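As a next step, we paired sequence with structure tokens, yielding the entry below.
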Amino acid sequence: MSLIQQNLKLKLMDNHFKFTNAVIGLPLFFVVFLWFVFWLEIRFDYDFVTNGIYPRTFSGLQGVLFSPFIHSDIEHLYNNSIPLLILLAALQFFYAKQTAKVIGFGILISGIITWVIGRDNYHIGASSLIYVLVSFIFFKGLQTQYYRLVALSLAVIIIYGGLVWYVFPNPETLGEKSISWEGHLAGLITGFVLSLMYKTPEYKKLIKYDWEKPEYNPEEDKFMQRFDANGNFVNLSPEEKEEVFSSYYASNLPIEYEIVLDKKNEPKPES
């Protein structure tokens, strides 16, 4: 692949990162809808908690769809709103083609896993979706090996790496607040699985050199043949030099020369 082709492909890869209205609109709509549901609960004195996931019961299956939109109090909702705004915007900007599938299947799969492994209690909140997004963005960036997405993965893990402590039972998750570590673990697993399911061929690593090709054989490489088993450089023998030079300068094509006089520089006859 020539340098021009490589630069063109890099440009095409960067063109996938387009700022659209959805980058702002999607996270805003999602978070505003969460606050609207919470306002309905307060305004009309509803109790949506019973619509959450209650593990291993038929009625508890409704929570697979409803639980991400239900929160116990305003602190719970606020703590989930900020990460959702950031992560949904990042998902829409860098993985626009996969956004709807990651959100939809992320909610369904993580909800079903929570329903299977959860404690006998109501599990509510969008934190499982947050773990889906963190997991998907982190693992998918490493899998693509594209420098912009790898940088995004590192940024996500730096900001939200501490979330890993809430995917296992500990005194904090089992304390008074009774955090659903099962939902967090389900989200983490779901995000990783989705990163494997949804391919991103548009971010396939560029092959710049021959030695990066799968069929590359170092024994056939003329440059590698100049080194011995210990890695020492070996000079070409006179026969090999002759072969190299002849391959560059020898030709079977006939060469014809034509002499053309430069009439511009001819002296003009004096009048």
User: Anything to note?
Assistant: The chain has a mean pLDDT of 84.
